[in-house]
Design goal:
heterodimer, A: mainly alpha, ABC transporter involved in vitamin B12 uptake, BtuC, about 0% strand, B: about 290 residues, mainly alpha
Chain lengths: ~350, ~290
């Protein structure tokens, strides 16, 4: 029975809801008459959702804000593109290998820097992102330099398939999110986020957990980079490694609800809608609009869309469990102590 | 040997500018425990202000310094009273302040972009191309002037912080805000003034930068990083620490031309940052103020 007990954190209701949602999304394009454009955009949105969730594992669950995730996005994208172009590997293999290389790259710089906390880590990641971008731009044998790389595929039926691959990506990301938040690991991550030293006192190995999360996050973002390369059929380092790409992941997560299991997916939808429908005509307002959104959310609703939803549900008399907000920005030190105690409790067999 | 001497003097001239640039960030972090991510944006905005004053009204960049300092002091106080004041203090607010000020940076970039487009701008003064000779090698007059202004600013700041009542209040709040309330210091006012002062220093750095480099709306990202490298290297709390941090960075960058190709010079600072953060999180000189 031990196996069943260790899976107690999985809620059956959530599992069913998830399965239904996936089924609906999987069959939707077969049933509904979506145009090519909508079909492709939804596939791309799935990828953004997965990438935002991956950023949230590190930024939301562990509380280490990374401004350098474009590095893994770019590494994954270019490794995948190279594998497809030079070795003719199928794109799925390319994405997976690219993702793993990106995850390894994340560990390479992350293992030493993750012991820094707060602003120190964040600023170090700006450095990592910028340095990676410089190197990639000048390493033209591999990345094609400023002229980029063109991929042969991704038209017609192949591009049509990307919708489902995007969906699988999203399914994997949601499952990992749920696992990282709800299982015992989730409690360990909360403890690390609240107070690394206190977490270490109750036996949480902060280094190992943070490395694990960063590796997962880097790998997922790398796979997304590969997907994006196939989707666009053309990539160049200035775009893949740009600071704006790191920013976009932060924005999606903050808009949707940082530290929540599903929030970033909502943020990704908002992001794509703004991007495709509003900014197509007013591209010069791009940064300012996001800046204002960021400021407003931080000042008024630090949990973003998820926070708004909670508010609505409270109005209808729903009482959320006490730990719902714990993943967000404003969890208190007292909450952290309780969480750490819970972790300690659970360690007793 | 000759070459090494020339490079040394270049590095010292650069270090002066770096010190002035980093001090604003260090001051705000030291007192409010907030990393002003909008620092780079302020530097960029000040460069544009200087350019406009020069272009439209023919005001020399060095005469524009007082104007920029006053303008950006007010901007800083405004930012504090309008936004930063509402954030929770201490570690709980760290993430929020990062994201909030990052948002401010994006807005500044967008405003400048809307007003002046994304093209590179540069200020061409009459003396921009003239040079002076130090120990047999030639250096451009602008770089020497920038160095002198930076040194004067740092000395003035040092005197302000150590000799005046206000400066002592700022340092006291940096050490222990709670006791300061007991001693009758209006903390909020000190915070607002400090944020203003830090922003004004970023403004000064922007004026100086505008005479040295070409700039566009995304200018400032590497300036923010370098400032951060310097406050990490030098530790907080003293003009001397900042100055030595600036020297270390400037020397590392200037002498790196022996080792790495020129386009990677900017990456030297980042590598230095990561190495120092990991090996000596308290700064090179061992003050364990930072965590």
């Amino acid at each position: 029975m031990r196996g069943a007990r260790s899976l107690r954190w999985i809620s059956v209701r959530a599992l069913i809801a998830f399965a239904v949602a996936v089924l609906v999304l999987w069959t939707a394009p077969l049933v509904l008459p979506l145009g090519d454009y909508t079909h492709n955009i939804i596939g791309l949105t799935f990828m953004f959702m997965a990438a935002a969730l991956a950023w949230n594992w590190l930024g939301g669950f562990v509380g280490q804000i990374s401004f350098g995730h474009s590095a893994m996005f770019g590494v994954g994208g270019f490794v995948a593109a190279r594998l497809m172009l030079t070795f003719g590997l199928p794109s799925v293999v390319g994405w997976l290998v690219g993702g793993l290389v990106a995850g390894g790259y994340a560990l390479l710089w992350g293992h030493p820097t993750l012991r820094l906390r707060g602003p120190y880590f964040s600023i170090a990641t700006i450095g990592v992102g910028e340095a990676t971008r410089l190197i990639a731009t000048y390493w033209s044998d591999f990345t094609g330099g400023s002229s980029g790389l063109s991929l042969p595929l991704s038209s017609g039926s192949t591009k049509y398939q990307l919708y489902w691959y995007g969906l699988y990506l999203l399914v994997a990301a949601v499952a990992i999110s749920y696992w990282l938040r709800r299982s015992r690991i989730g409690l360990a991550l909360l403890a690390i986020k609240e107070d690394v030293e206190a977490a270490a006192d109750v036996g949480v190995n902060a280094t190992r957990y943070q490395d694990l999360v960063l590796f997962l996050s880097g790998t997922m973002v790398g796979v997304c980079g590969g997907f994006y390369a196939s989707y666009q059929a053309f990539i160049d380092p200035q775009d893949m490694f740009s600071f704006d790409r790191s920013i976009s992941l932060i924005l999606m997560t903050v808009i949707g609800g940082i530290g929540t299991v599903l929030g970033p997916t909502g943020g990704a939808v908002v992001f794509v809608i703004i991007q495709e429908f509003l900014l197509a005509n007013y591209s010069q307002l791009y940064l300012g609009l996001y800046g204002i959104l960021l400021i407003l959310i931080i000042l008024f609703e630090p949990l973003g869309l998820a926070g708004l939803l909670l508010r609505l549900r409270r109005l209808t008399g729903y009482r959320p469990p006490a730990d719902v907000g714990a993943g967000g920005l404003t969890s208190t030190a007292a909450g952290g102590a309780t969480e750490a105690a819970v972790v300690a409790d659970r360690r007793v067999p | 040997m000759r070459e090494a001497l020339t490079l040394t003097i270049s590095a010292i001239l650069l270090a002066g500018f770096y010190a002035a640039m980093a001090y604003g960030l260090g001051l705000i972090y030291g007192v409010l425990r907030i990393v002003n991510l909008a620092h780079g944006g302020i530097i960029m905005a000040a460069a544009y202000l200087t350019w406009q004053l020069f272009d439209r009204f023919g005001i020399d960049p060095y005469l524009a310094i007082p104007i920029a300092v006053v303008v950006f002091f007010l901007v800083g106080v405004g930012l504090y009273l309008g936004l930063v004041r509402f954030l929770p203090r201490g570690p709980a607010g760290a993430v929020q302040s990062l994201l909030l000020l990052f948002g401010v940076w994006l807005v500044i970039r967008n405003i400048v972009y809307l007003l002046f487009t994304g093209n590179d701008q540069a200020i061409q003064t009459a003396y921009a191309t003239s040079s002076a000779s130090i120990l047999g090698a030639h250096y451009s007059v602008t770089r020497i002037l920038v160095f002198l202004v930076a040194v004067v600013a740092l000395i003035a700041l040092h005197l302000l912080l150590t000799r005046t009542y206000l400066g002592k209040a700022i340092r006291a709040v940096a050490q222990n805000p709670d006791s300061c309330t007991l001693a009758g210091i209006n903390i909020e006012r000190v915070y607002a003034f400090t944020f203003g002062l830090g922003t004004a220093l970023a403004g000064l750095a922007g004026v100086l930068a505008s005479t040295l480099f070409a700039f566009n709306p995304s200018f400032g990202a590497s300036e923010l990083l370098k400032s951060f490298v310097i406050i990490v290297l030098g530790g907080l709390g003293s003009v001397l620490g900042i100055a030595s941090g600036a020297c270390v960075l400037a020397f590392a960058e200037v002498f790196s031309i022996y080792v790495v190709p020129p386009y990677l010079t900017t990456a030297v600072g980042f590598v230095l940052l990561v190495v120092v953060l990991v090996l000596r999180p308290g700064g090179l000189f061992g003050q364990r103020v930072l965590r």
